[in-house]
């Protein structure tokens, strides 16, 4: 079942790329006691994600943080090496690139999608949420396009 507004984000151990290589991080450590914008994409380096979704958050990162947001997190069902490389390629220095390598987070959130028919495997749906102290305050899920989960939409909700 899809996570709902008012529910706590599950505590899952994922990875980020550090200078030493992949590093484990728990979602509770990233979310508790903070106001966070978290958005998810179906795949790093894919056209919509690389040309529209992530770039919007890169461009608006300072404005989003000026609205009291402590962190901006991008998650995808990719490994930490891919997420780290994608973040560098997109100049996403202000965004935590969170690797959900085996779709554990996407599934725990009820926001996984099975794209096996097109040979992509299980991926995350495209969405964005505002989270306060680990609790979902807003949730926008896109079936197509990037209207509900764009940086501009998130900014309008802050």
TrEMBL record:
The protein's annotated catalytic reaction(s) are: a hydroperoxide + 2 glutathione = an alcohol + glutathione disulfide + H2O
One GO BP on record is: cellular response to oxidative stress
Q: Which CDD domains match?
A: PRX5_like (cd03013)
Q: What is its EC number?
A: 1.11.1.27
InterPro entries per record: PRX5-like, Redoxin, Thioredoxin-like_sf, Thioredoxin_domain
User: What residues does the Thioredoxin domain cover?
Assistant: 3-158
Keywords from the named record:
Antioxidant, Oxidoreductase, Peroxidase, Redox-active center
Provide a Gene Ontology MF annotation, just one: thioredoxin peroxidase activity
Question: Has keyword Oxidoreductase?
Answer: yes
The enzyme's first-digit EC class, named in words, is: oxidoreductase
What is one GO cellular-component annotation here? cytoplasm
Which residues of this protein are catalytic?
Answer: 49 (cysteine sulfenic acid (-soh) intermediate)
Return the similarity comment: Belongs to the peroxiredoxin family. Prx5 subfamily.
What does this protein's UniProt record list under function?
Thiol-specific peroxidase that catalyzes the reduction of hydrogen peroxide and organic hydroperoxides to water and alcohols, respectively. Plays a role in cell protection against oxidative stress by detoxifying peroxides.
Spell out the protein name for this chain: Glutathione-dependent peroxiredoxin
Q: Which organism is it from?
A: Oceanospirillum multiglobuliferum
């Amino acid at each position: 079942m899809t996570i709902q507004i008012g529910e706590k984000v599950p505590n899952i151990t994922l990875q980020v790329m550090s200078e030493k290589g992949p590093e484990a991080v728990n979602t509770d450590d990233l979310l508790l006691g903070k106001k966070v914008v978290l958005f998810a994409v179906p795949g790093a380096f894919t056209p919509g994600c690389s040309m529209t979704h992530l770039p919007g958050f890169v461009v608006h990162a300072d404005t989003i943080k000026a609205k009291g947001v402590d962190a901006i997190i991008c998650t995808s069902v990719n490994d930490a090496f891919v997420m780290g490389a994608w973040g560098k390629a997109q100049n996403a220095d202000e965004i935590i690139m969170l690797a959900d390598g085996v779709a554990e987070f996407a599934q725990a959130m009820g926001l996984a999608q099975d794209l096996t028919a097109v040979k992509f495997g299980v991926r995350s749906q495209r969405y964005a949420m505002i989270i306060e102290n680990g609790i979902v305050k807003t949730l926008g899920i896109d079936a197509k396009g990037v209207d509900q989960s764009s940086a501009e939409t998130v900014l309008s909700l802050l």
